[in-house]
Protein 1
Amino acid sequence: MFNRDWKRIGLLLGFSLLIIIAGCGTDKNTKEKASDNSSKNDADKVNYTITGIEPGAGIMQATEKALKEYENLAAGWKVDIASTGAMTAELSKAIDKKKPIIITGWTPHWKFAKYDLKFLEDPKGIYGDVEVIKTIARKGLKEDMPNAYQILERFYWTPEDMESVMLASQDGKSMEEAAKEWIEANMDKIAEWTDGVNEVNGTAIELVHTQWDSEMASTNVVAEVLRQKGFDVKMTPVDVAIMFQSVAAGEGDAAVGAWLPATHKDVYEKYKDELDDLGANLEGAKIGLVVPIYMDIESIEDLPFPS
């Protein structure tokens, strides 16, 4: 009797355990299926489209490559060519309504300071690793304007610094006002850039920059510091290729927006021997595909195949 009771109990326990295991497996499968359906629904809602920026930008070139290299993207995804302003406007509208959106994104940028966003994992490394932003100058600037060259060579700040200037501009201030306010609040850093640099009397210098908010922020900050040392600063917005070309040709004096080693790799390689590389002015930059954190997707490979 004793043995039969224990056998009966053992059978009941084993049967219960099988039910629990089966239930757990069903729950896991249900969750995975729900996640797959969520990604599929999100992809349908964005019409299998990535919201991009200006043509020719390094991030757009990388995205075109991603559309070929990732099998799921190559099956029918496309990228909308627009502008940085149009992309951020679409992002803002989507987030206000908690709708799905996939953008070509980068940091530092005010959108990461304002919204909860995440980069999609990039297993194939199409968008590269963490990047630096470098300062470049024309050949001969060191001899012609040693004071300006010294400031440009020392210029260094953090992604948080840059994003604070961009966010202030986004919230209603002009980029020039935002730059001046940041400088006033960070005189210790400014002192590191300008220590021992003598003032000049109206020497003209031209800084060229792309029209990314990040580069307008950094260029306005550097321009204001140079003005405080007596320089007559001209800021010229140009496309990426023209930024490198003009500095290499000596038509522009310097730029503080060279994203390397990936984003501006091709154009940098073309002109690197014709300009001076002053090194990184910011570390920790990154580009890639970006989504709001409320979207249930983590990797580019998880984007569904079009129907």
Protein 2
Amino acid sequence: MEQIQIVDFKDSYSAAFKTINQEWIEQYFEMEEMDRKALEHPKEYILDKGGHIVVALLDDEPVGVCALIKMNHPEFDFELAKMGVSPKAQGMGVGYKLGKSIIEKAQNIGAKTIYLESNTILKPAINLYRKLGFTEIKGIETPYQRCDIQMIKYIS
């Protein structure tokens, strides 16, 4: 695990951000309009609006990504989104490191809550979110057809 390094997004990681996410989305679901917006324009859709993206590197190669998207919602400050890990790096703790890094970024900018949407078919992801301190909530409107679970983490 020593060789995994978490770094801030830069433009040269744009293709990896899209590819890593598109890979898991298309494996289980279909790409949706909101996916395309975030994956094709991460700077405009995420970073320029006050969000962050972190990238996991294995020997300088991007193998994981995770975004923190600024929300315009009275209950939630940010959304943890677009987390993906390349199959070659799965089982190495990459998702946990990405999640911890994104939560730390949220804490550092004063966030009180982080929201996420997922699907219960993604059992390893749901287990990871619980390990990171997220709990299930219900009733939030979502643009994603595939969303069947919503979670929140309160930051102290």
